[in-house]
Write a structure and sequence with these properties.
Layout: H1 3-8, H2 12-35, H3 51-77, H4 84-115, H5 121-162
Helix pairs in contact: 2-3, 2-5, 3-4, 4-5
């Protein structure tokens, strides 16, 4: 076995833990992107969109982005982030951190726009369009961040496949040597 390749392996338990964390965060991002809606049942912006609901989307996106950034920071501090697989995972995590962080201001702008008063039909139409674009953009950032987390998990799953070629060394139990006692001779 090549000792250099062995050093490149991220421990199996660490890989499984990280895949679980990535999958959990990916699901949260996708759930938010699907559940946080601006449009009503008719597919239109409500005439009086609820600022409280919309600013909650921004707060939720901020919390999610913080979680993604923390995942990236934790992995970047690990000794595994410098090997080939680790660099690939870190690249996907960095992308996810950037994308998820961009969602928050777009949700906040949607909420801010909801508070503005339209002075006429044209202004109201522009206001509604701006809200739709900002909200859709924010949701797209969440979806794209989840895709980057998915890609990081795929890298780790591929890396996990390498473990089968390099099984953990078996730890054979070596019986303890007998302690000198009254029945042993010393030479």
């Amino acid at each position: 076995m090549n000792p250099d390749v062995r050093r490149e392996l991220i421990p199996r338990d660490e890989v499984l833990r990280l895949i679980g964390a990535l999958d959990g965060m990916k699901s949260k991002l996708l759930d938010a992107a699907e559940q946080w809606q601006l449009l009503d049942d008719t597919g239109r912006v409500p005439s009086t969109p609820a600022y409280a609901d919309l600013i909650q989307h921004a707060a939720g996106a901020h919390t999610l982005a913080h979680g993604v950034v923390e995942l990236a920071a934790d992995f970047a501090r690990s000794p595994h982030s410098t090997n080939r697989a680790g660099r690939a995972v870190l690249t996907h995590l960095a992308t996810a951190a950037t994308l998820s962080s961009h969602a928050t201001p777009h949700f906040a702008e949607t909420a801010e726009t909801a508070l503005t008063q339209a002075s006429g039909p044209t202004d109201g139409h522009c206001r509604a369009n701006r809200m739709v674009i900002d909200h859709a953009t924010a949701r797209a950032y969440l979806r794209r961040a989840s895709e980057s987390l998915r890609d990081a998990a795929t890298e780790l799953n591929d890396h996990l496949g390498l473990h089968r070629f390099f099984p953990e060394p078996s730890r054979q139990q070596i019986p303890p040597s007998p302690l000198p006692g009254p029945g042993t001779r010393h030479h």
